[in-house]
Amino acid sequence: MSAPAASxxxxxxxxxxxxxxxxxxxCGKTALFNRLTGSRQxxxxxAGVTVERKEGRFLAPSGRLVRVLDLPGAYSLNATSADxxxxxxxxxxxxxxxxxxDLLVCVxxxxxxxxxxxxxxxxxxxxxxxxxxxxxxxxxxxxGILIDxxxxxxxxxxxxxxxxxxxxxxxxxxxxxxxxxxxxxxPAPRDxxxxxxxxxxxxxxxxxxxxxxxVDDALDRVVLHPxxxxxxxxxxxxxxxxxxxxxxxxxxxxxxxxxxxxxxxLGSAMPAGPLRSLVxxxxxxxxxxxxxxxxxxxxxxxxxxxLEESGYLPRAAFLxxxxxxxxxxxxxxxxxxxxSFACAIPGIMATRTIQDRRDRLATILVAPLMTCSARLPxxxxxxxxxxxxxxxxxxxxxxxxxLFALYAAGIVSALVVSYTMKLWRHRRGHELEEHxxxxxxxxxxxxxxxxxxxxxxxxxxIFLRRVGTVILSLTVVLWFLxxxxxxxxxxxxxxxxxxxxxxxxxxxxxxxAPIGFNWxxxxxxxxxxxxxxxxxxxxxxVYALSTSADQAxxxxxxxxxxxxPLATALSLLAWYVFAPQCLSTLAVIRRETNSxxxxxxxxxxxxxxxxxxxxxxxxxxxxxx
Amino acid sequence: xxRNWHIIEINSHLETHFEIGFDPVYQLTxxxxxxxxxxxxxxxxxxxxxxxxxxxxxxxxxxxxVRVVAKGPVGGDPLLVQIGYxxxxxxxxxxxxxxxxxxxx
Lengths: 625, 105
Known about the structure:
The structure holds two protein chains of two kinds. Chain A has 27 helices and eleven strands. Chain A is an alpha/beta fold. The longest helix of chain A has 35 residues, at 449-483. Residues 1-12, 42-51 and 549-553 of chain A have low confidence and may be disordered. Chain B is of the alpha+beta class. In chain B, 30% of the residues lie in helices and 34% in strands. In chain B, strands 1-6-2-3-4-5 form a six-stranded antiparallel β-sheet. The longest helix of chain B has 19 residues, at 2-20. Classes of the chains: A alpha/beta, B alpha+beta. The A-B interface holds A 75-76, 78, 80, 111-115, 118, 195, 208, 211-212, 216-217, 220-221, 224-227, 229-230, 314, 317-319, 321-323, 325-326, 331, 434-441 and B 45, 50-51, 53-59, 61, 69-75, 77-78, 80, 82, 84-91, 93-94.
C-alpha cells in the first residue's frame, strides 16, 4: 500500500503549481513577489506601480515548481482601469491569453485590514482555491495591532499565513503552505453585505490601538501643509537637479580621463590604419563619451527611487493635483511625469494607473517633454562647453541654473500643451463627464537599501547594455558612413566632407541652416533618432574624423567650444528640449494608445515645437551676439 | 442640475438640524478639518455613477467614521480624508457625494 501512495505523492509534487498574487495597491505584493522568486525588479510604494505582467518561478522544498504571476494591484473586481481589468480577467479566468491560476494568493496589508479584507471577501466569492497572506505583519506588530489569525482563518474558511516581504525568511510559512499538495477552496460565500462582514470580522479577530501610525500623522502635518508642503516639494526638486549636475561631476571627470588614457594607449599600441581609426575615433570616442554620463543618470535614478520607496510621491500628487487639473492633467500624472525625467518609456507605461482616458492621453502626449536622462549627455556637453563655470549669489552654480532652466522649459511647455488640449476638449464639448482622482496615500516607509540597490543596478545595466548594443553599433555605422568613400588624393579640406555622411549633412543644411545647425550637427541628428545620447557619440565620431590632429580627437568638448558660435549651442539645447529624438518613445506611445495617429500627432507637434523654439533661440541669440 | 438640487436639499437639512439641536449633516467638503464625523450617505449622481461605486468600495459606506486630515494648497482642493486605517485624496466634486453627521463637540 505504501509504495503506490509514495509514487502518487511524488507525481503530485512534480506537477507544477501556478499561483497568482492578487491584492490592493500598496499591500507590498511586489516586494513579496521579489522575495518569493528572487526576481530582480523594482519595488515601489505608490498606488499601482505594477503595470507590467510579471512572472517568476521558484522550487518549493518538495521539489515542486511554483510559477508565480504578479497581478496589478486592484481595489475591486469592478475594474475602473486597464490595470484592474487585467486582474479581474485573470482571477475570473476570462483573460484571453493568461491561463487561470491554480491558486490565488491574496495579499493583504496587516495594518490596513479594513480596506483590504473587503477585497479578500470579494475574491472568495469567485470560489477558487485561495490562501490569504497577511503581509507587513512586522509593521502591524510594531503598531500594537493584534490579529487572531486562527480565528480569522476559521471565520473565513481559508488558510492564513503571516509574511514579511522585506525579511529574508519572511515568506517561509507561505512557501510551506504552497507546498501543501491540497489546494484549499473557500466555502460558498454567504450572500451578505461585504462591509458588514468586514466590520464583524475586525470586531471579532483584530485589536487595533489606533487608526493611523503616529509617524504618518506627524509627517503629513508638515509635508502636506499648504505652505511648508509646497516649499519642501520645490526644495526637493531643486536639490535633486543641483545634485545631479554638481555631485556627479568628480565621477564623470574620472571616467572621462580614464577613457582618454585608454584611447591614447590604443592609439600608440595599434598600427595606423582604418582599424585604428575605427577603434579610436569610432568606438572609444563615440561610445566612450556616452559612458561618462553614467554617474549622472544613476544619481537621478537614486533620487527617484528613494522618493518612490518612501511613499512621498503620492503626497506630491496630492499637493499638485489642483494645479495640474488647471493645466488639463491630474495629480496622478505627477508619478508618470516624474518617471519620465528618468526615461519617457517607463513614464508612459506608468500612465496605465490613470483611470480617466482623457487624462491618460494628455499625460502620454506631454511625457516626452519631461527632460529624460538621455538628454543629460547632450545638455551636459553643451553647458560645460558654453556656460561659464562660476557661482551666482556666491553659492549657486551657473551651469546648474542653466540645467534647471532647461528642465523648467520642458515642464512649462508640457503644461502649456496640456492646457491647450484641455481648451480644445472643452470646445469640442468632451468635458461632460467628471474626471476622478480617488488616490490612496500609503504609510511612509524607510526606503530599503536592498531594493534601491537592485533598482539602481537594473538602471545601470539597462544603460550599459544600450551603450554596448544600440549606441555602439550606430557609432560604428556612422564611422563607416563618415570614412567612406575615402577622399581622393589632392582633395582639399577634411576627408569627411567627401564621405557619404558629409554629403548627407551638407544636404540637410538647407533645412537646418535657419536654426544655426552646422553639417556636423545635422549628421548627428540622424543616428540620434534612435536615442538622444547617440547624438553625443555621433558628434564625437564626426569631429574625431574631421580633425587632423589625432591627439585632440578624443576631446569633443573643447573642440565644439572653439568652433561653434554660442547661438548654435543655445539653438541645439532648445531643439533637445522638444524634439522627439527617440524612436522607442514613439513606439511605446503607439503601443500604449493602440493608435498610429496619436503617435504621428505626438511626433509632429514635438518636431514642430523643436524647430520653432530653435529658430527663435538662434535668431535672437544671433542678433544679440 | 441634479447636483445643485442636492446642495439645496443639504442646506435645508443644515438649518433644520441646527434648530432642533441634532448632529449637523454636512457634505464632506464642508466638514471642518480634524472633526470626527460619521458617514450618513453616499449620493450617486446618476444611476451608474462610477465614482460613487468606487467610493463605496474604498470604504465610504454608511456608519463609517471619517475625518478630513488635510486640504490641498490651492482652493482647499483636494481633501485628504481618513477613512478606517487609510487615507485617500478626494477632489471636492468627489467628496461632495459623501454626506456626514459631525460628532457633537
